[in-house]
Amino acid sequence: MIEGRHFRNVEARQRTLSSAIDRYIENELPKKKDATGRRAHLEWWRQKLGHLKLADITPAVIVEARDKLLREPYTRARPESKRSLHHGRTAPQYVRSKKTVNRSLAHLSHLFTLARREWHWIAVDPFDGVGKFKEGPGRVRFLSEAERDRLLAETAKDPQLHTLTLLALSTAARAGELWNLQWRDIELKDGRILLRLTKNAQPRTAWAHGEALRMLKEHGKVRRFDNDRVFLSKTGKRYRYAKPFKSACAAAHIKDFTFHDLRHSAATYLAREGATEQQLKAIGGWKSGVVSRYVHLAAEDTRAVLQKMNERILGK
Question: β-strands 93-94, 186-187: how paired?
Answer without folding.
Answer: unpaired
